Amino acid sequence: QVQLVESGGGLVQAGGSLRLSCAASGRTFSSYAMGWFRQAPGKEREFVAAISWSGGNTYYADSVKGRFTISRDNAKNTVYLQMNSLKPEDTAVYYCAADSSSSSKVYEYDYWGQGTQVTVSS
Questions:
Q1: Does 27 have pLDDT greater than 90?
Q2: Are 61 and 82 in contact (CB under 8 A)?
Q3: Torsions phi, psi for 38 (to 5 deg)
């Protein structure tokens, strides 16, 4: 079992930055791949980024590549999403999730946080 709690969301102007954190409970955090997803009003939840259990491999959606960076600190049981050059279309609730392998598929993730709101004003 893994419990996930996101933080770091907020309101930011276009072009600004935010760093999201996802704190995990449980001693097996380092054995899980982690992902970030987002869901805008009226839209399906979509993949943003994923990182392997070791942190050695990262994956990004085309829409955020070059602007967002996913990282993890297994000693702190935390995964991060650094978001730069934010755009209004990045506005969504952002969720972190844990899985046995890095994936871009929502249905493959076993554990989810409650989400944190990110709002980017134009």
A1: no
A2: no
A3: -145, 155
